[in-house]
Design goal:
The protein is α+β, with helices and mostly antiparallel strands. 44% of the residues lie in helices and 17% in strands. It folds into two domains: 3-57, Arc Repressor Mutant, subunit A (Orthogonal Bundle), CATH 1.10.10; 60-196, no CATH class. The strands form three sheets. Strands 1-3-2 form a three-stranded antiparallel beta sheet. Helix 5 packs antiparallel against helix 7 and helix 7 packs antiparallel against helix 8 (155-167).
Length: 197
């Protein structure tokens, strides 16, 4: 199997895309990616991110490639967890305080800055709607975040998300209270849950 075939095999296993890191990790010179783009067998989606000409870009994965610290949060996390059916037009991310990078210049991105000490609280890796691995806050951390930032969340989305979470068979109230304690919102959380439970 030649290097072109090896790259196409990686693309096949990645649901239609490949990264420069994938290629280098498999001991293939990254110049083969450039040659495949020139031949038309791949398209360059963004820096270090390539797909088949028929590939539909995974916006979640494309965003996550721009910083290793990207965590999808708030409304975007609610959508990814099925707690709202409103598809995000603006993607909400949490990044560490002090971050300065390309994501600040993107029009379709809203950033919330968090202390590094809680950046990884409740982070999980899930599969995006397009099939790539991305980092997002779990449902419990997301519920705590929307309570903490209630004034920044659409009232309808807020209400829908809380009701859907309470109805969910996957909810973990112990984890929810643990996060609420870490984020110092236990009292607010109790007030909302007393009405809904």
């Amino acid at each position: 199997m030649n290097n072109y075939d090896k790259i196409l095999e990686l693309v096949k296993h990645n649901n239609g895309f490949v990264t420069t890191t994938d290629v280098v990790t498999n001991n293939i010179n990254k110049m083969f990616l450039t040659q495949m783009v020139k031949r038309g067998s791949l398209i360059r989606i963004s820096r270090g991110y390539y797909g088949l000409p028929t590939y539909i870009e995974d916006i979640y994965y494309a965003i996550s490639l721009k910083s290793k610290n990207v965590r999808f949060s708030l409304e975007t996390a609610l959508f990814l967890h099925g707690l709202t059916n409103r598809t995000p037009l603006v993607y909400t991310l949490s990044l560490p305080i002090g971050y300065s990078g390309i994501l600040q210049k993107e029009r379709n991105i809203r950033i919330t800055y968090v202390n590094k000490s809680i950046l990884n609280l409740g982070v999980e890796e899930i599969i995006s709607p397009f099939g790539a691995k991305i980092k997002v806050y779990d449902a419990e951390k997301t519920i705590c975040d929307i309570i903490k930032h209630k004034n920044k969340i659409d009232a309808e989305i807020f209400s829908e998300a809380l009701k859907n979470y309470v109805k969910s068979k996957k909810k973990d109230l112990n984890k929810l209270y643990k996060y609420a304690k870490a984020l110092k919102i236990e009292k607010k959380l109790r007030q909302y849950l007393e009405v809904l439970l």
